[in-house]
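Blackboard transcription, Thursday session:
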Amino acid sequence: MAIVDLNCDMGEGFGVYRLGDDAAMLDIVTSANVACGFHAGDPLIMFETVRLAKERGVAVGAHPGFLDLWGFGRRTIKGEPPGDLAKTVTYQIGALQAVAAAAGHRVTHVKLHGELGNLAAADLDVALAIGRLIAAVDPSLVWVVQAGTAVERAAEMVGLPLASEIFADRAYTDEGTLVPRRQPGAVIHEPEVAARRVREMVEDGAVHSSNGRRIPVRIDTVCVHGDTPSAVAMARAVRATLESAGVQVRPFSSTGVRAALGGAAR
Amino acid sequence: MAIVDLNCDMGEGFGVYRLGDDAAMLDIVTSANVACGFHAGDPLIMFETVRLAKERGVAVGAHPGFLDLWGFGRRTIKGEPPGDLAKTVTYQIGALQAVAAAAGHRVTHVKLHGELGNLAAADLDVALAIGRLIAAVDPSLVWVVQAGTAVERAAEMVGLPLASEIFADRAYTDEGTLVPRRQPGAVIHEPEVAARRVREMVEDGAVHSSNGRRIPVRIDTVCVHGDTPSAVAMARAVRATLESAGVQVRPFSSTGVRAALGGAAR
Amino acid sequence: MAIVDLNCDMGEGFGVYRLGDDAAMLDIVTSANVACGFHAGDPLIMFETVRLAKERGVAVGAHPGFLDLWGFGRRTIKGEPPGDLAKTVTYQIGALQAVAAAAGHRVTHVKLHGELGNLAAADLDVALAIGRLIAAVDPSLVWVVQAGTAVERAAEMVGLPLASEIFADRAYTDEGTLVPRRQPGAVIHEPEVAARRVREMVEDGAVHSSNGRRIPVRIDTVCVHGDTPSAVAMARAVRATLESAGVQVRPFSSTGVRAALGGAAR
Amino acid sequence: MAIVDLNCDMGEGFGVYRLGDDAAMLDIVTSANVACGFHAGDPLIMFETVRLAKERGVAVGAHPGFLDLWGFGRRTIKGEPPGDLAKTVTYQIGALQAVAAAAGHRVTHVKLHGELGNLAAADLDVALAIGRLIAAVDPSLVWVVQAGTAVERAAEMVGLPLASEIFADRAYTDEGTLVPRRQPGAVIHEPEVAARRVREMVEDGAVHSSNGRRIPVRIDTVCVHGDTPSAVAMARAVRATLESAGVQVRPFSSTGVRAALGGAAR
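(Written on the board underneath:)
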């Protein structure tokens, strides 16, 4: 029987601000990627998010981003040395670990946010520097990666366990990468369409491109977004469709993610 | 033979800014209280401070403050619930723990900064809320306290090990509290005067007030400041004077700090 | 025929965050108090708010607050010298003036935000320091005040034109001050109740206390809130009720606000 | 007789932090570019800088940068729409104008900071968007430009008066651009060498490249840096050398800067 995780970014408010309906999403997903105070998030929101996640059996991971609250971690910031970026990631993971400890929960994964994630996906130096410091903090942390990216390679080289992710609401190219947001059809808005695609890809063990090509990949987790108008409806549809097809939805941290090649070899 | 620690606040820069001569101070003191990014500090400065501390055998502790970079944690901010303040402290400790792990070092103590410290010293609810979350993160963390304050009491009630601190450059009242900064004679500027007082108090096991009264206290650590013009000279004088009097200067984390009363009960 | 202005705080988002439905409120109110980047707001949001206001004939004013984005200007921050607070207000007004110029509009009033407003209302030194610097920037700026506060007195002493404000959704004491938020009945949630009260008070030229007492005050403007669930409904009800009673609703900047007694007379 | 201005970036501290010896520099230079709170600066530092400048007859200009305190406006941030960048510049100019009014002084020029300056120098769309909003705020503001850049062209197209700048401590290529910092010899550290070069270039009305080539440019102002160890010594040497050669050193705002081509058309 297939097993898969549903993950969602959460705790992306700041001070009085909130983004998305975290309480509703926490009833649907199995892993929460919690913003750590750099692109969004603050200690109170982090604590509350982790507390609710614990209550509902949802796994929590760090969701570190650029130190750029104003740009929500989405501004393209170039030129920071990989080692410096890695230190900022380390800081954010540690902050969440302590907050999670205070809330009686535990951080079990890491997923990079926004432009930091894009940068690491494309730049092996950045990905490796980050991977090494994740491992220095806790080598059992599962790194959520997209197949074929530098982050996947870095996770393998560093020896971190990794969880391979697909996106519920994004179209794929024939190379298995995301269709850029500005192209028509890049983003899927209808919950039922997204849900059916996710089921097909999970059952097939492959990403399906816009052109109908299948690119086999391991699928440990499905990312659903939390900050769009149809977010909750789409997440519900994805989960219901998977479960009605007999797929078990549960946190990847308990499903035996891919042991990275690395540790051993190094 | 008497043993005492010398502690100093460090890493209190931000971005391009620096405060004090940390490199020089790290050759003199035995414990560094590292700013954690709220009143000052950032991941890069934290990493560098911890790395240097490790290199020189200096113990590191978290130095959490209010989320108030502009006010450097010195603005009086009222009304935040104790539990919320405690969560911000937790966040900061965790951030430093992870950065320290990345630098191959370990966080062994906590000392509150500025107005957050003043608030906790005067308000047992705040101190207790903070103490409980420190213990939740790591119950072996030594809490640096001033004798007679709510922080000392909270450390005892929560069962955290504590290190009792005196200040090298501050005059004391007959009650053993600090003479308010605005009163004449509140701050000692001459390195030799400060050094002699520290030696006398350490040898006597008591704080000496401006009026010549002695108030017996345990002295585990002596705070020297790092951001005044004579900071380095004063720290050197204090250390030299202590050592020439046969006092051993080393990190309190290794000297057997006071087991909190609570600890026993656990 | 009675004339009154309706004012509302706006532009209180930051980066990706938004607060309240500004577009809807701008169709109802006649004056917008625009956050200026300290407790909330940023240059893009400010520009967009002012642009929309201009388009709809809504007057704009600066809504300066504490430099405290995390606390949304609602943390109680003590001890900042009045002159320093005044400089932060000046900065914010100027920032909005330039943004307004870029958007083809003009800043015609000032209303203090949150705890900065509370502090100035209670502390004449703070209010005077702020008033003097408002006048230094532009002596024709109308200062929105609550009757009986230090801000009203400061506006008179400094010689700034002032607009006297009542709140649509708050109960009043027999002294004409707001019933503290934590007391039962302090906040009015039903649009129709609020609308009827506003009409009665505007027609009567007096604030009506919870106990039924009337306290005569000049009423130039009525504050409606923009960030509550019923905000838009309440603002619509207030405006409709006023207009159906023959009250003209238009910006106070064009209604001849109270000429302050003016430096001269005192 | 030749006339030239000396300009220097100032007020680049934040909260408790300071950068450079502004008080000393204000005795030497004739124009101060004042940081406006985005890459550095805050209302109190801005006020104090402007107050001292006024006292010493130094002209003040806005020195706007990216909203990036941590990176001091030196991180390369890509992809922000030109119009958005222009709004952030507008905000900063207005903030300084009001602070200057409160200090009894007046903002007479604008000089972009760091990476925002580099971006505008290379991208005419950005430079034009910024130039148009500077003109919307105050069309008499002098824009400090480097000859041959998009900023110079934008100033001309928009019709802003402009002041053409050379750098005291930077080597030039044969094309009249700055030798990149990482190349050997790019930065001149000896005050006397810098001072002699500046005198020669000012007298010659041309930039002198490392290879000895001369590129004729108008020179209205010479930039001296304030945040290097030899900053004050170099600024003093430059001024003394210019004056002993009979060059008059005074603010460009009073020397009749180049009327932009556009101006004529207006």
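Lecturer's comment: Residues 261-266 of chain B have pLDDT under 50 and may be disordered.
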